Amino acid sequence: MPYFAALRARIEAVLTRALAAPAALAAALGEFSELLTRTAEERVAAWEAEGHELEETGAELERLQQLALRVEAAVEPSVCFRLVAVDCSAARAALAARARAARAALQAWLQARFEAIALRLNEDPADAEAMDALERFAAEASQELPALEERCAAAALAGGVLEAGRAALDDAAVEAHWRLRRWPLALQAELAAAAARLEGYRGRYKLQLAADQRALSQDIQATKARCDRLAAVQEVEARLAALGEKAAVYQAREDIFGQPRTEHPQLAQARPWAGGYIWISSVTPSVAASFEPYASLWRTAAELGRRLPDWLDGPFDEIDAEGLANDVDTWWRGSARLLKQLEGPALDVANADFQKHVPLITALRNPGLRGRHWERISAAVGSSIKGDAGFSLSRALQLGLPSFVGAIEEVSEYASKEFALERTLDKMQAEWAGVALGAAPWRATGTSVLRGTDDIQQLLDDQVVKTQSMRASPYIGPFEERVKAWEAKLVLTQDTLDAWLQCQQVGGG
Fold first, then answer.
1. What positions belong to coiled-coil segments (predicted)?
2. Span 127-142, pLDDT tens digits
């Protein structure tokens, strides 16, 4: 036995020494593992997403080229050792090909940058803003061109290295290489042509701006005359807004051409338009500012006039009482403020007459009102009333219901308390939707036991307490039987679950 043990140890030592060199070869190839983690397309997509500068792109192109050469220099196609021979040709070729493919893809991406710049430079600006944006783009492209040329030179140098080494390249790689070498000169020509075209557009839009400013001044004067007559309120308001937008656009264009801004002191003071703000002197009367109280009052009256027919004669069951009350209150406050700003005799609007009916509407449009409540209201007012589609506010006024608003509000308040209990019961029952008991296998018995019952027990406890509290409410009458039935179901479920869990504990579950 000692002899065989010694022999085994000797064999292990020989194998260890013989396999050390192949292991070192594998480690040498391990430094190129990055080439296997991503495809060339994935590498380029990540490179673009990371937002690298052109200098970094050139360095990466050179690194990938050197990486391919290092793969080929690191190992021979076939390596013989004392005990084994390793064929490295397939791995060597695959790694070098991956490095060159990554470099070619990055080179194609760089070429796409050139093409995107050229395409943008050939666009025709539709207005002064587009012209200004294109000029800025051309300036940025001019600054970027030297770096692009440097990268192309690096690519050309790498191509020369490949050619000198007689490296085999496919047709696509060769075509990409030569197209990239042509682009710096082509892009210089594109920039020169774009500069000439933009100069022509600049002169054209400069003349157009002067004409637009003259037309704007004429429009402002015409609108001022219409404001003085207070004619066509909506049209005047819309026209003022349009003039403000034009003024903002033209001022922005004057900034583009380096011209001082043309001020229009008859427009609104520090008033926001669709392009910014128009500022005026504080001593100059503003057309929009003087017109605003009339426009606001007109809008209030118009909106009230539009809504009143629906509220008075429309289906009563479609009235949103809360929204109605908020609207009427807003109009009332706004009208009171506007009337203080306007000169002349006090103006009255239908809002004041309508506002006193809001409490009646709110009481009659209570969502908690049911048939039993309408019967109580009918008994109180001495007329048969039901808040359905055939009922309206005009009908309520004809029946003299404002005289009974106190009794109606009392019934409505009672209905609200009952409605709150009803919604609470509905919510409790809805909480059980989707609740299910969980079961898990019990050892190797072929049976199951309940699991995860803590939340269910807590829900049962909470709802039992709530139902007991509801039964003590003086407003439970219409739902008493329903609440009792629900409480009985909860208690039965609770007792059954407790007994089940106790049985599991006794049985070891």
1. none
2. 667 666 766 766 666 6
DSSP-assigned letters across all residues of 161-200: HHHHTT----HHHHHHHHHHHHHHHHHHHHHHHHHHHHHH
In SS3 terms, 81-150 reads as CCCCEEECHHHHHHHHHHHHHHHHHHHHHHHHHHHHHHHHHCCCCCCHHHHHHHHHHHHHHHHHHHHHHH
According to DSSP, the β-strands at 276-278 and 78-80 are: unpaired
Whether pTM > 0.85 for this model: the answer is no
Judged on CB neighbours under 10 Å (0-12, 13-18, 19+), 366 is: buried
Nearest to 134 by CA among 54, 209, 200: 200
pLDDT tens digits for 292-336?
666 666 666 667 666 767 767 777 777 777 877 787 777 667 666
Alpha helices by DSSP H, 404-509:
405-430, 454-471, 480-506
The candidate with the shortest Cα–Cα distance to 35, out of 43, 44, 26, is 43
Evaluate whether 106 touches 47 at the Cβ level (below 8 Å). yes
Q: What residues does each domain of the chain span?
A: 18-202, 213-289, 292-412, 431-506
CA 393, distance to chain mean position in Å, is 43
What radius of gyration, in Å, describes the C-alpha atoms of the chain? 43
Asked if CATH classification 1.20.140.100 holds for the domain at 431-506, the reply, yes or no, is yes
Cα 288 to Cα 295: distance, rounded to the nearest angstrom: 9
Three-state secondary-structure class, residue 156: helix
